[in-house]
Aminopeptidase P family protein (Streptomyces marokkonensis), 392 residues
Amino acid sequence: MSDPDADDGEGTGEETPGTHGTPGVFKEQDYAARMARAAYEAATLGLAGVLVTPGPDLEWLCGYRPAGATERLTLLVLTADAQPRLLVPGLDRPDAEAAPGAGALRVFEWWDGQNPHTAAAGLLRPHGRYGVSDGTWALHLLCLQQSLPLATYQPLSAVLPMLRAVKDEPELVRLAAAAAAADAAYEEVLGLRFGGRRERDLAADLARLLREHGHSRVGLTVVGSGPHGADPHHRAGDRVIEDGDMVVLDFGGLKDGYGSDSARTVHVGAPTDEERRVHETVRAAQQAAFEAVRPGVSCQEIDRAARAVIEEAGHAEHFPHRTGHGVGVTVHEPPYLVEGEEQPLAPGMCFSVEPGIYLPDRFGVRIEDVVTCTEDGGRRLNTTSHELAVVH
């Protein structure tokens, strides 16, 4: 999804991420390895450790997701010199101990009437420098700073931006299954009537089909018809789709805890020569970016490959967003395929490749696949046709 303000999937749906055998549950050793790697990588950067609060990082690292958002402090502490420790409200301890990764950590509790930040401070070094989950409540961070005034804290996305970027094989299996489910939903949408219907009604159909094909959470269903397709931030409104409209479809969500994200552009009735040319330019740009994917190539080079095709066609000013973003337990995460991002690609990274052209007040075109980097290059997880589909 190209919308930089779209839902980034801070809640990871209704499942715990993936499994080796049964979708939804990884094994304890998987979580132990993730926590050990995070602690090791933090130590190599001179950090005293990593502090993780509820959100996608906590769920990915130890498999625990509190039952609901709460002001009560929950904190995972990862350091290279100690077993992982999870501090939870006393009432939540049974749920924490039932998490699939709980056997690899020690659970501590605090109770109402006690100061949880004092309890947390007892697990930290007074002068330590810590990476902290981006979604940590300001309340908790400020209280930790008050409890340990000589400790320092940095956003986890700044110090360990690639923490979840490289996927293992079980994660890749889940991402491929999510992509296949999104593809199946798209194939069914092509058989529906577009003309004469409101965008939001078609978006509802698309969301329904995503759920029917196994998505527990629908993150976004963009239906941008005619001039609305020229707005990368448009989702779906009350505009009635007309014969002759280009329609941008951008959709995805979470299946078995892992994300799908795909975009295709269709046309209601026969397209004009100009519409075909613009669509072909975007298709060629997407192909050029895909072919540039290989280990060691920087993220910005993928963006440049797509942008060069669009610029050559005279549409440089009509491609205003990055070429892609990582996809995993959230639908938007590192790495980001954008100018200035020098992070090299590595096997196991998964990301969207989604160039577009947007002609103001007229129409837009976007084509998007989730791609994984392999030892030999890129592999598309989405496999539906990139041709301009004609719908009725």
